Amino acid sequence: MFYIYCPYCGEHREEEEFHPKGQAHIVRPKEPESCSDEEWGDYLFFRDNPRGIHHELWVHAVGCRKFFNITRHTVTYEILETYKMGEQPSITAETYAPQSSESEAARVAKQAGVRA
Amino acid sequence: MSQQQPNRLQAGGRIDRSRRLSFTFNGQTYQGHAGDTLASALLANGVDVVNRSFKYSRPRGIVAAGAEEPNGVVQLGSSEAAQVPNVRATQQALYDGLSARSTNGWPNVQRDLMGLVGKLGGQFMPPGFYYKTFMAPASMWMTYEKYIRKSAGLGRSPTEPDPDIYDHMNQHCDVLVIGAGPAGLAAALAAARSGARVIVADEQEEMGGSLLDSRELLDGMPADRWVAQVLEELAGLANVTLLPRTTANGYHDHHFVTLHERRTEHLADIAPLKDGRRQARARLHRVRALQVVLATGAHERPLVYANNDVPGNLLAGAVSTYIRRYGVVPGNKLVLSTSNDHAYRAALDWQDAGREVAAIVDARPNPTGDWIDAAKAKGIRIITGSAVIEAKGDKRVSAARVAKIDLDAFQVAGKVEELTCDTIASSGGYSPVIHLASHTGARPTWRDDILGFVPTLVKGVSAAGGAHGIYALADTLADGVEAGASAAAAIGHQVLSVELPEVAAIREGATCALYQVPHENPTLRAPKQFVDLQNDVTAAGIELATREGFESIEHVKRYTAMGFGTDQGKLGNINGMAIAARCLGRSIPEVGTTVFRPNYTPVTFGAIVGRHCRELFDPERYTALHQWHVENGAEFEDVGQWKRPWYYPHTVNGKVETMHEAVARECRAVRKSVGILDASTLGKIDIQGPDAREFLGRIYTNKWEKLAVGKARYGLMCKDDGMVTDDGVTTCLGDNHFLMTTTTGGAAAILEWLELWHQTEWPELEVYFTSVTDHWATMTITGPEARHLLSEITDIDLDRDGFKFMEWRQGKVAGVPARVFRISFTGELTYEINVQANYAMHVWKTLFQHGEKYDLTPYGTETMHVLRAEKGFIIVGQDTDGSVTPEDLGMQWCVGYDKPFSWIGKRALSRPDTKRSDRKQLVGLKPKDPKVVLEEGAQIVFDPKHPVPMPMVGHVTSSYYSPALDSGFALAVVKGGQHKMGETVYLPMADGKTHEAEIVSPIFYDPKGERQNV
After folding, report:
1. Locations of Polar residues compositional bias (chain A) (predicted)?
2. What ipTM describes this predicted complex?
């Protein structure tokens, strides 16, 4: 169960208070009538399913009722940031610097403590 | 030595010899002491066989002393309602009157018929035996399974309701320490002294872990003295919560850990009363921690040798635990087979208890270290470079066959010596308990230096002590302090120094890698060498699996069932992986890592459910008039969480009306005089702001710019794919103020829908939404006499031309401020009276005082459905299913094609798919036989003579008997139906009958709509 920071309430709250609303930053075309059927179909039905960084729209349904965005890693489920409507993510798939496998191994070795 | 407890020591251990407890096991009465577990008491009484094995029905005894016990799984409970399956005898505290039975074994564990099958058939029962043998014919599997299950036996659930209650508790803490052994206590101390909020959870009856049976001294004192000191300090700190008898069972996202606290299971099988009230038997703590320290310790690995499952084969560490903690020596003559130094203490404890050690058999050629010196000093025979290759005995070990072994060549390298003994203790090293870390999805890492997997940890989690392979006591304590201090520091707490107790350093040699012990015969021909005792998985089974092409350890597990079920591979997994690796010529990490899933040990369903059962399973919502409905005999229907009156059966001549009779009577009253409905559950959203009107125009399909104050309009809402999602009447209360009604079930979702569009797409619109569903009670009076009735108790002018259909007025009804809406869901003259909810009962009762002369009749949702369907009024979610457009419903009159803003759903209506002429469209169906009421959901075909499968062209969405028409009638969706009026369709039923019906207009009653306008 996620632990989500609501950028409007300024608090971490349990996932039970929130509803996920799918991929974030899907903009409704300004002039739907000038969209081709294919463009309209893309807007309606097609969504990303990335392994890694994903921007999601959530709503604090039983809290402040505000919609906001989450940048989440779909492998570790780590929530890297939450930000208000109208704002842009500071972490994206392009800018995200994962800890390299080397440093992860180093971290594990350190935790394992070779004192034994 | 007690006569009744032949294996009980006269002194020592942490049991209370002054408190004698009586218990029964398989119907036989035994004695134990306070402080015993069921397992220690059984061993004290010399009970060797506690179970029969799952597949081969071999006799099995206690192996371990904790959660990792694979054999001692019992059925608990002295009465039917108290039955609990899957209890580990090693984890069950003894109480007076405890009653337990073996899980497997028929007719009993001593004489078991299936044992014969296991003995004779064992050679012929390879992995996959059941599937291979009973595969054909497939239809017979259900029959086979019944008998196989009976003989296998997995425990059983009670057939009577559980009298116990269970709790949930949501908790937050800074540092959660899991495990209260040396590492956990040290971590807790460091974190607690920093002022951090700390929860310490430990699964055992007593906190202290390995310190409770340690031979080592802390500050020159016995280890348990230090434990007592630390616990006393922790218990005195307000920022610390100690949870004994509490297992951390699952590690979920973002440091959400579920703790299963057993609050009364050490007292009785049904929770005793306290102050006259039933105590909560178990509590599930839902803990959200900022930092977690995993101090879960390590499980000792047994060695895999022939007949290593005969009762009397134990883990070396368990032998020490039983002697030092429970004052029980589980035998008379011991052979210890080990690959490491630490296990030597089992032999030392055994000899200290005054019993004979036949030999220590060490797989290493030249073991050196303090433990070895201690054993030599006591004159214990040490056989090096060797191992126990086979146990002799049937229901109890009678001898150990010992031989020199060549580890590199994996073969016996010398003559076999047979040592008489009744107990074989074995140790193949230690496996860190990485289950919880594994729940996060992080793969563990193999370390050759400790011959075990260590956890890979996500941010905010650390491991301490044995949980990541640090075993020496002094190091474990220091590691615990570091973990606790770092966790507290990471969240900003100032850490004070913790002085560690002095522990004498112990020189220990390296452990050698020994998992399966070679036998004189090859693995497939040797007597069974068990890897997973609970699932009866043998070394030969794993070898066979690899030969049959199962190379991934995950496939081997599924093929052999290794690590399945309640055991979750606590003892067997690493040995199994090592055997697979040997057979495949790979290293253990190359064969794969192992994954564990929640729960760590079985959790009773009661604890998972907590108080969310019976009437608290889901919240129930009542309207302000609920009590009246109850008093007037209403039957209720669940609509979302609401309890709505379904119909009000009368008693006529001592006979209670059927629903059919009641609904017919209620329908007639509405059509003839006047009926009343509690419509309070309809969703009501108050919409205000200068842009409220513009917003409505964008979200609804129809037009709103000209709706005047005082008027109401029906609206249809689509998703942007053009499919109908909700409908309702919205009223203009003021130029910037509207009241929207939604379907009962859709209220919350529609409010969220409005907010979604406002907040994400049109934040520039100034508009505000507030749910007022519960603030207003709504009473619908409908029927030709509605005006007469209302006029008696209101100051509102009800003149037909002054207060027209689709208008609303403010005034007083029964002396109470009210909003009255002239809208209709029945097709009759209707007034919907809205008053503040807490005045509703007064208004409702006043209406009845005046209503008697008009035959005012309360009606429920069933009558409401019939009346609205007669008028062809849809119910979103019943007549629509998310694939129906306004045009499919024939509601083009409700679509503003020329609105300037491209409203939600508009663009999709011109997609090729929504333009198809053969879309399913809403129509009425008139059964050819008026007595037939078609089944809702029944499939419709055009040609009943078409060979099966027939093309299905639609289905019935609503169907009722109409008293007004004296006929069944239905709404349905039919492909191209709007252009097939008068045509006949067919409805083939499951019983072979086929109904005929004519496609008609969905408006069956008063097609011109005159009655609502009177």
Report:
1. 94-103
2. 0.88
